[in-house]
Design a protein that fits this description.
nine-stranded antiparallel beta sheet; 9 strands
Length: 189
């Protein structure tokens, strides 16, 4: 069997999607994200706070890595890392990024994209202090950074075996968040 045939033979969307939420989406994406990540944890999703962060380097070449979400709120989605990392270098060159959360058991994914801002030195120090002693070992003062991805777009995706996936998309406007629930790819903002 060829690799392509083998990959095509693997099952996909094998989780169990929750029932659609009858309530209208909230006015901002953070409350819906909190509801979804808590539901993922309650459903037994391991490391539901793990996400893929995508950045680009100074030459525009994309890069991605898995990391742990530190916080989420109106100030953004927070993540951290060493100041001397490739991630830090890339964010210094291009302060935009995307985060993707994927929770297969509940057939849900969240995509967040926007600009990235460095948190204060005090917030970064507090995040470092919250890590275990082993995780802090070898990190010099000021060598740890907490960033916040301030989204301009957040997409909530619910998979369906019939491929009629549901999307709720938040798009930031000058007046706040615009919410849409497109039914086809061509309707996406």
């Amino acid at each position: 069997m060829t690799m392509a045939a083998w990959l095509r033979s693997l099952p996909s969307l094998t989780g169990t999607a929750p029932l659609p939420d009858a309530a209208p989406p909230p006015d901002a994406p953070e409350p819906l994200f909190e509801r979804w990540i808590r539901a993922a944890v309650d459903a037994g999703v391991a490391e539901a706070h793990g996400a893929t962060l995508a950045t680009v380097d100074a030459d525009g070449i994309p890069d991605a890595r898995v990391l742990i979400l530190k916080d989420v709120g109106p100030r953004g989605w927070a993540f951290a890392g060493p100041r001397d990392s490739a991630k830090a270098e890339q964010l210094a060159a291009q302060s935009a990024a995307a985060l993707t959360f994927w929770w297969p058991p509940v057939l849900r994914s969240v995509r967040v994209r926007g600009r990235v801002m460095e948190a204060s030195a005090e917030e970064s120090a507090a995040d470092l202090a919250a890590r275990s002693a082993a995780a802090r070992d070898g990190i010099a003062p000021g060598g740890w950074v907490l960033w916040r991805l301030v989204p301009d777009r957040v997409e909530f995706w619910e998979g369906s075996p019939d491929r009629r996936h549901r999307r709720t998309i938040y798009h930031r406007t000058a007046g706040g968040w615009q919410v849409s629930t497109p039914t086809t790819e061509s309707e996406r903002p």
